[in-house]
């Protein structure tokens, strides 16, 4: 019984890794631009399809296909910010939300037209052999996928905390006007945040599709990330890492012991209970503006 619980826990933690990358993409855009990007899931889905096309259609080695996917995903995010979101600067929040929802619908529709609506399996670039920790069995693809996600997440957090671009994003998030007065290129920061989110979406999309396959419906997986963001708070990069792993673990444990019908909503009940006590999330901070 204990061995089974440990196995489910490890699987849940590994599954939460995809939530972490996607949530980091949400948070980095919100911190820099105050835009909540509802197209994040579709950016993940398109990235997975790009990897599939590069590796299967063009026959590239998975490493080259990954590099090509990262580059194209960054370009897609750049184009979305430069030609759509930048024109919306200063518009009401509800307009920006509708714009990102519209972008997501467009990407999902284009993916259906180009690749079809069936589920495609990515090439087996991850080892399938299970990993044993004593008597505990861990699926190989899930373990290696989590390892890749962990490397990307650690690299991103280090870049965000210590690079000049990361410092500029944090300064813009703290006070946009002051950042601009100090000479920070605020529009460049907006673009950088979207490009970083595009790279994170590529990592999350490939990680998710390597285990479950890819279809235009993959984008809806990002809706589960909303629970992660609400639990952690939109202002905490480190918080979404903890919250993503926790939500992945909770979904798996609930699904294993209570069934799929409980799995679909119980994590949101837990998140709602937390938000009733801490409206800004466990790690979020209340934003105070002085007039």
From TrEMBL:
Pfam families: BPD_transp_2. GO terms for cellular component: plasma membrane. It comes from the Bacteria. Signal peptide: none annotated. InterPro entries: ABC_transp_permease, BCAA_transport_permease. Belongs to the binding-protein-dependent transport system permease family. LivHM subfamily. This is Branched-chain amino acid ABC transporter permease.
């Amino acid at each position: 019984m204990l061995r089974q619980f440990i196995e489910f826990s490890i699987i849940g933690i590994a599954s939460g890794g995809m939530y972490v990358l996607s949530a980091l993409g949400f948070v980095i855009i919100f911190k820099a631009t105050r835009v909540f990007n509802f197209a994040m899931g579709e950016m993940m889905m398109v990235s997975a399809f790009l990897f599939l096309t590069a590796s299967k259609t063009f026959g590239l080695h998975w490493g080259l296909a990954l590099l090509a996917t990262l580059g194209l995903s960054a370009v897609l995010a750049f184009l979305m910010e430069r030609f759509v979101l930048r024109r919306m600067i200063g518009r009401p929040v509800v307009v920006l939300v509708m714009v990102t929802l519209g972008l997501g619908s467009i990407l999902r529709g284009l993916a259906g037209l180009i690749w079809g609506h069936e589920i495609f399996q990515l090439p087996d670039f991850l080892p399938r052999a299970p990993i044993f920790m004593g008597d505990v069995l861990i699926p190989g693809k899930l373990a290696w996928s989590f390892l890749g996600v962990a490397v990307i997440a650690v690299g991103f957090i280090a870049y965000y905390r210590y690079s000049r671009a990361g410092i500029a994003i944090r300064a813009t998030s703290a006070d946009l006007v002051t950042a601009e007065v100090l000479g920070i290129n605020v529009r460049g920061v907006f673009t950088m945040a979207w490009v970083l989110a595009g790279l994170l979406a590529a990592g999350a999309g490939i990680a998710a599709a390597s285990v479950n396959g890819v279809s235009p419906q993959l984008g809806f997986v990002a809706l589960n990330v909303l629970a992660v963001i609400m639990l952690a708070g939109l202002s905490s990069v480190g918080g979404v890492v903890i919250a993503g792993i926790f939500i992945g673990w909770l979904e798996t444990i609930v699904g294993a012991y209570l069934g799929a019908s409980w799995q679909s909503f119980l994590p949101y009940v837990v998140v709602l209970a937390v938000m009733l006590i801490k409206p800004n999330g466990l790690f979020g901070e209340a934003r105070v503006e002085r007039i």
